[in-house]
Amino acid sequence: MAERLRNQASAYLRQHTGNPVDWWPFGGDAFAEARRRDVPVFISIGYAACHWCHVMAHESFEDPETARVLNENFVSIKVDREERPDVDAAYMAATQALTGQGGWPMSVFTLPDGRTYYAGTYFPSQPLQGTPSFRQVLDAVVTAWTGRREDVEESAAQIAAHLAAGQLANQHLLGSLAGTAVPETPSGGDGGWAADALGAAVGVLAHNEDPDFGGFGGAPKFPPSPVLRFLLAHGHSSAPTAGTAAGLAARTLTAMALGGLYDQVEGGFARYAVDRRWQVPHFEKMLYDNAQLLRLYAHYSRAETDPDHHGLALRVVRETAEWLTHRMRLPGGAFASSLDADTVVNGRRVEGATYVFTRAELEQALGTGSPALDLLDLDDDDGASHRLPGSTLRLAAVPTAEQTALWAGARAALAGVRQQRPQPDRDEKVVAGWNGLAIAGLADAALALADAGAPEPWILRTAEAAAEYLLRVHWNGSLLYRVSHDGAAQGIEGLLEDYAGAAEGLFALYAASGDPRWFEAAQSLVAAARSRFLADGTLSDTAAESAEVRRAQGGVVAANPLDDAVPSGVALFAGVLLTSSAYSGAVQDRALAEALTAHLRRAAPAAPQAVGWAMSVRQALEDGPLELAVTGSDPSAVAGLLAAGRDAGGPSLVVAHGPSSGVPLLAGRETEAPALAYVCRAMLCRRPVDSAAELQEQLQSGTPAG
Fold first, then answer.
1. 3-state SS string for 14-29
2. Alpha-carbon distance 685 to 668, whole Å?
3. How many C-beta neighbours within 10 Å does residue 126 have?
4. 293: number of CA atoms within 13 Å, CB side?
5. Are 522 and 478 in contact (CB under 8 A)?
6. How many CA atoms lie within 13 A of 90 on its CB side?
7. CA spacing 20 to 30 A to 322: which of 92, 120, 519, 589?
8. Helix H segments across 236-286?
């Protein structure tokens, strides 16, 4: 049996190397083989940390008879959705069109040209509650292919046409970007629609809030990270709905930090909770979630004035940074993609086995009657109602400083117990865009802790090491590669989200460190993204799209402006364009950022949870964004002004400091004074100030620079 997956970057693909199924990686060679044999293609899409992907693999892909049917009648392709989100998005749209739902593992059957004619998600090995077995599905698909080829072709054409309409709708939503007009004023002169749309979005989110447990909607609950980014930014504005936004963000962030979604022992967040209380997580831990949440809690810590809530936010920041460094950091400095939901115990995969504790285990580790146990909200049935081998650990209330110190001792004891257990597998592929978000999170975490009087300089060094890895391994000066493994890029060009995500991280790292090399690298990535993904007034998520994916989508390519768990490439690109323009004064970049967020006029009030990152960019546009340039001869004085500015300026503040070479916002502002701060808007600056009080007054006044 061919072992084409053995040397792939993806742990998910490598997990299937020993299957009796003759797997191919996604690419033109696999489809060419299907054309040569005149057989359909079976595409199985999942990811390494996916529990049900493991279940289907064990039940079906490890079964010799099922493998025989697949090998004789199909060319079988295995896809890691994290490595190829472009492939996943196309076939997820087809699956949802056919079934009304989606998920992983995804099972898709296509013509040899890539167009879908049947699809589903997990199929059991035996018929179950109205769901056919996987073997029954294979038999039906083969029968249709051999006996009703014309019907199959017609179905594939209809599905492709449906997906083409969806892509055209995305194009229509974004509109043409050709000849984007340069705004006449820094605030955009848009007639006020943006302020109204963002305020309406806050109202919709308030209506959708879970009043009892925070977050939006019912179970399952995913961290609404892009939306929280907007709410924190809007909460710092002078808008009438600012207080509502700030309250929404605070309640959700607090609920997640107290619940089982957050790992109270080691730090870091699980992918989602299966219940509305944030009580029982699906235990896989993803880099993209933790990168965003780390940054959100860093920003929230600056806004929160209550000492206990502030302390909780900083605790999450520190512990999540530690978790990223200890569990996810790879040799060379980059970060792995995920930790598995399951742990192998006695040869059997058990979800959550590493993380949960029975009451007896807690009492043995902490001592019977330990006051630390009183801090917890434990299941009476030790997790049996959720089919877990114990309880998740959840704090019953926001701890005081004294209780936080008590829990710190308990954490250390429980971590020692947990370390003796089998540990979940790690997917060690490096994804460029996600690492960019992690760099941004670490950079802002380092600042939040330092400015709060608890400096952790190793956090900034960790961010710098990851940035150096990206520039050394993923970026060749003109192309950014999406994935690497064992220190080598794998040849898959990055998507728009990778270029923009990496630039986001490098801009944040420059703002934290003042090292202009990060600024210069970020500017290079923004320029490359502009040239590779924007053509003839149309933005694309991909620069090197597969012919099969293009045919699956009916021949139409477009960029999806809607967020998923990861911000959309469109929104990320708009954000780094705005940051670039704030540093450089490039009005064309600002104009393009405005154009890329114009769809919010309709989308923000209608579907705010799908456009959170874009709304945060638009909020920054509404705010200026405000720019802060700090220069001086006394590093301590400069640091004091920077800390005061970051506290007062809010999440949208663009910060420049360090050597002025190559950074236009700093040009001509060198001084021999201990420290001077310039508050600017569109590079037009107010008089410089040398005290924290004056700086905070300027940043909070809301008066345009000039």
1. HCCCCCCCCEEECCHH
2. 12
3. 11
4. 33
5. no
6. 30
7. 519
8. 242-258
Let me know how long the chain is: 706
What's the pLDDT score for residue 58? Answer: 93
pLDDT of residue 680: 95
What is the DSSP code (8-state) at residue 161?
Answer: H
Query: Which amino acid belongs to residue 679?
Result: V
Entry pTM = 0.94
pLDDT bin (cut points 50, 70, 90) of residue 119 is very high
Mean pLDDT of 428-441: 97
CA-CA distance, 322 to 327, in Å (whole number)?
Answer: 8
The two tokens of residue 30 are 């696999």
656-677 per-position pLDDT tens digit: 999 988 999 999 998 999 999 9
**At residue 11, what are phi and psi to the nearest 5 degrees?**
-65, -35
Query: Which pair of tokens denotes residue 191?
Result: 């007639």
Tens-digit pLDDT profile for residues 221-256:
999 999 999 999 999 999 999 999 999 999 999 999
DSSP state of 90: H
DSSP state of 61: I
- CA dist 11 and 336 (Å) reads 10
**Structural contact between residues 174 and 599, judged by C-beta atoms closer than 8 angstroms:** yes
- Cβ neighbors of 385 (< 8 A, separation 6 or more) are 379
**Stretch (H or E) spanning 464:** helix 457-469
**Rounded mean pLDDT, 132-157:** 94
Q: How confident is the model at residue 558 (pLDDT cuts 50, 70, 90)?
A: confident
The rounded distance, in Å, linking the Cα atoms of 107 and 116 is 11
For the record, the structure tokens of 439 come out as: 């760099």
**Distance between CA atoms of 506 and 520, rounded to whole angstroms?**
9
Whether residue 130 is predicted with pLDDT greater than 90 in this model: the reply is no
Identify the CA nearest to 504 among candidates 565, 452, 566, 455: 566
Q: Residue 13: which of 28, 31, 21, 25 has the closest Cα?
A: 25
* pLDDT band at residue 131 under the 50/70/90 scheme: confident
* C-beta separation of 466 from 439 below 8 A: yes
In this predicted structure, the answer to whether residue 182 has a pLDDT above a threshold of 50 is no
Q: Cα(556)–Cα(553) distance, rounded to whole angstroms?
A: 6
Of 559, 446, 561, 441, nearest in space to 501 by CA: 441
Q: How far apart are the two ends of the chain, measured CA to CA in Å?
A: 71
Residue type, 566: V
Phi, psi of 334 (to 5 degrees): -80, 175
Q: 173: which DSSP letter? A: H
Report d(CA 320, CA 437) in Å as an integer: 14
The residue assigned the tokens 């400015």 is 451
| Strand partners for 281 | 273
State mean pLDDT over 305-315: 97
Residues 6+ apart with CB under 8 A from 590: 182, 183, 577, 578, 581, 582, 621, 682
Residue with token string 């690298």:
521
Q: Mind giving me the DSSP string for 619-679?
A: HHHHH--EEEEEE-S-HHHHHHHHHHHHHHH-TT-EEEES--TT-GGGTT---SSS-EEEE
Is the pLDDT at 690 greater than 70, yes or no?
yes
DSSP string, 31-47: HHHHHHHT--EEEEEE-
Long-range contacts of 369-377 (CB under 8 A, 24+ apart): 370/410, 371/406, 372/406, 372/407, 372/409, 372/410, 375/399, 375/403, 375/406, 375/407, 375/410
